[in-house]
Automatic annotation (TrEMBL):
One of its GO terms (biological process) is regulation of DNA-templated transcription. Residues 152-222 form the HTH luxR-type domain. It comes from Rugosimonospora africana. CDD domains: LuxR_C_like. The modification 4-aspartylphosphate is found at residue 60. Residues 10-130 form the Response regulatory domain. InterPro entries: CheY-like_superfamily (IPR011006), Sig_transdc_resp-reg_C-effctor (IPR016032), Sig_transdc_resp-reg_receiver (IPR001789), Tscrpt_reg_LuxR_C (IPR000792), WalR-like (IPR039420). Keywords: DNA-binding, Phosphoprotein, Transcription, Transcription regulation. This is DNA-binding response regulator.
Length: 222
């Protein structure tokens, strides 16, 4: 009895840069994978996946129309609606919040790799196959960013309600005097709250960094 040959993995590529899109397709085809669709935006990606149900979709983060996180949002919806389809985010950018949301449910069949850190085509193909088969593949830099974001969230959770108010006003660019006036407290009390906020966020005194600006960024990122 003749042995059946396993069918090649079926892949959809979503990438708005034409050269990158065509290059990925050629690499995958040469390695024996079946590229069933190549699209340039998130809407076309969702349509292709709904219709073709590939084994894996390789998705850029920033695509038309806004070039922000359309790819990651599409990856989330695909992972939710078609859990049997692997989603491999392949991008120059780390969108921490959306990545955390993508991985927060069932991380099986999910990957996130950075384009400029993939040095070997074989490693990339292995990652595609792993995600298609239900594995999880994350670039160490992505893991580092997710861990740092989690640490910031935990630090912010330790702030008192008054400290949150003070930090929110710092993020608006308010001076200590302005904060004291708005909250009807003394400037000395504001200084104590600011010092406590900076300490809880792990922002030690530095000659090079504006700690108030960094604290504001952490607040806005949260």
């Amino acid at each position: 009895m003749a042995r059946l040959t396993p069918r090649p993995l079926r892949v959809v590529i979503a990438e708005d840069a034409a050269i990158m899109r065509d290059g990925l397709a050629q690499i995958l085809i040469r390695r024996g994978l079946d590229v069933v669709a190549v699209v340039a935006d998130a809407a076309a990606l969702r349509c292709a996946v709904d219709e073709l149900l590939p084994d894996v979709a390789i998705i850029d983060v920033r695509m038309p129309p806004t070039h922000t996180d359309e790819g990651l949002r599409a990856a989330q919806s695909i992972h939710r609606d078609h859990p049997q389809v692997g989603v491999l985010v392949f991008s120059q950018y780390i969108e921490t919040r959306s990545a955390a949301e993508l991985l927060s449910g069932a991380p099986a069949g999910v990957g996130y790799l950075l384009k400029d850190r993939v040095a070997d085509v074989s490693d990339f193909i292995d990652a595609v196959i792993s995600v298609a088969r239900g594995g999880t593949v994350l670039d160490p830099e992505v893991v580092r960013h997710l861990f740092a974001a989690s640490h910031r969230a935990n630090a912010l959770a330790t702030l008192t309600p008054r400290e949150h108010e003070v930090l929110a006003l710092i993020a608006q660019g308010r001076s200590n005097a302005a904060i004291a006036s708005m909250l009807a407290i003394s400037a000395g009390v504001v200084e104590k709250h600011v010092a406590s906020v900076l300490a809880k966020l792990g922002l030690a005194p530095s000659d090079n960094d504006n700690r108030r600006v960094i604290a504001a960024i952490k607040y806005l990122e949260s």
